[in-house]
Write a structure and sequence with these properties.
Elements lengths: L7 H17 L10 H7 L3 E5 L6 E8 L2 E7 L4 H18 L3 E4 H4 L8 H14 L2 H10 L9 H11 L3 H10 L5 H8 L3 H11 L11 E2 L2 H10 L5 H10 L20 H9 L1
Helix pairs in contact: 1-5, 2-3, 3-5, 7-8, 7-10, 8-9, 11-12
């Protein structure tokens, strides 16, 4: 953690940016959670797709002046939420295209570019505002002197953020020491998973969702206007892992071909 520190001034700037955006969307008193996707959707076009490489949490590109963010739905849902918040920083303040790597979002490597550190801190401030986190700790009557990995797992579920994000957030607001932070960050993923199971915490797992922005709506619209064939509609909907039947469009009626005897009778009339 020591290799990837922001300055005090940079931390204050990011906090101000996050608080400003929360105020703009009137979310200062709300735990955002999955609402972050709706905010992201207001600022770019989102593609949800299960990428094979789970080390890639998504990517951000600008194509012909339009911004596109892809979220990898093969990773756990809390990580998808963090990815969305991370990308909001780039959309609003940094504007850099990027491949979103787990190693950089979780800061498990050294020499992470400064914009990525700023985006990570922004996502943490945006999803877990200090005021709301302290309120949650008070409401749950959590003893600040006895915060352990079980407490971290519970709080991470409340705010729908990854375990590692909550560990760092608690350290950032000085609710845990630097030594505790290092200890908690060393906890293996399997151990975190077992703690969730033990506590009966229902974490939204990976969904493998496929949603390609407004592809389905546009495809159905041009089909309904008679601009494309059913075969082309089926081809387009297949990208979103759906079909005309699933969208309430019945099979096209096939005209019954007359038999040879019927054709002969018609010809003799």
């Amino acid at each position: 953690m020591t290799e990837n520190l922001l300055s005090h001034k940079e931390c204050l700037l990011v906090r101000e940016q996050a608080n400003g955006k929360l105020a703009f969307f009137n979310k200062q008193n709300d735990i955002l959670g999955e609402q972050v996707f709706e905010i992201l959707n207001q600022n770019c076009r989102i593609l949800f797709y299960p990428l094979e490489d789970e080390d890639v949490w998504g990517f951000f590109e600008r194509i012909h002046g339009k911004s596109f963010v892809c979220i990898n739905t093969s990773i756990d849902f809390d990580k998808q939420v963090f990815t969305a918040a991370h990308e909001l920083y780039h959309l609003w303040f940094n504007h850099e295209q990027e491949l979103i790597l787990a190693s950089e979002l979780e800061e498990r490597t050294t020499n992470i570019p400064k914009p990525e550190l700023m985006a990570n801190r922004f996502a943490a401030e945006f999803l877990v505002p200090e005021l709301l986190l302290r309120q949650e700790i008070r409401q749950r009557k959590i003893d600040e002197e006895k915060i352990d990995e079980y407490t971290v797992v519970r709080l991470a579920r409340v705010f729908l953020v990854p375990y590692r994000t909550m560990v760092k957030r608690l350290a950032e607001i000085q609710m845990i020491s630097a030594a505790q932070c290092r200890e908690f960050l060393l906890l293996p993923e399997k151990k975190v998973f077992r703690i969730r199971k033990r506590l009966g915490i229902d974490l939204i797992e990976r969904s493998n969702k496929i949603s390609l922005d407004n592809l389905i709506d546009n495809a159905l619209s041009v089909y309904e206007q008679g601009q494309i064939s059913r075969a082309k509609l089926e081809y387009l909907l297949a990208f979103a892992n759906t079909s005309p039947a699933e969208m309430g469009i019945p099979d096209e009626e096939r005209l019954d071909r007359p038999s040879d005897d019927e054709l002969d009778a018609l010809m003799e009339e």
